[in-house]
Amino acid sequence: MNIILGTLSLAAVAFLSLSPQIPDAFRTGVGNTVVFALSTGLLIAWSVLALMGKPWARYLMLAAALLFYGGILIQNIQIYRSAADAHLATAPLIAQVAAGVIEIVINLWALLSAKTRRYFEHAASAAGRGRRTP
C-alpha cells in the first residue's frame, strides 16, 4: 500500500510541477515539493527494505508513514476547516480525513502486530544463518 500510494503521489506531484497545462495557482512551491518528494521517497525506500526483511526498516517505514499520512491528514483537516467556515460542501473532505486516519491505523496495526514481529524475527535469524528468507 505504501509503495503504491507513494509512487502515485510522486507521479501526481511531478505532473502538477512539470505540466505546462496546470495553472500556476495549483502548483506547489519548490520547498513544499522537495519536502513532499523526500518524505514520499523515504516511505517508498523504507517500505521496500522492510519487505526485504530488514528488521530495522519497519520502524523507519512506520516513521515515514506517520510523517507522510500525518502530513496529508493535517492538510485535509485544515482544508476542511476552511471549507466549513465558508459553508462549502465538506463531505469529500470528511472522507479524505477518514481515509488518512485509516491509512495511519493500518500502518500501525501492520507494523506493530505480533505477526509482523515474528516475520522480522524469522528474517533476522535466517539472515544470521546465511539463508535467504522465503
Annotation keywords:
flat, 134 residues, 78% helix, 0% strand
Task: Give me the secondary-structure topology.
Elements: H1 2-18, H2 30-51, H3 57-85, H4 91-112, H5 114-128
Helix pairs in contact: 1-2, 2-3, 3-4
Explain the overall architecture.
The protein is built from 5 helices and no strands. With 134 residues, the chain is mainly alpha-helical. α1 runs antiparallel to α2 and α3 packs antiparallel against α4. The longest helix is centred in the middle third of the chain and has 29 residues. The radius of gyration is 18 Å and the shape is flat.
Share of helix, binned: over 70%
Number of strands: 0
Structural class: mainly alpha
Low-confidence residue ranges? none
Shape: flat
Beta-strand residue fraction: under 5%
Number of helices: 5
Compute the CA-based radius of gyration: 18 Å
Distance N to C terminus? 21 Å
Nearest-integer average pLDDT: 85
Order of helices and strands: HHHHH
The biggest sheet, with number of strands, parallel, antiparallel or mixed sense and barrel status, is: none
Can you describe this structure in just a few lines?
This protein has 134 residues and is an all-alpha fold. 78% of the residues lie in helices and 0% in strands.
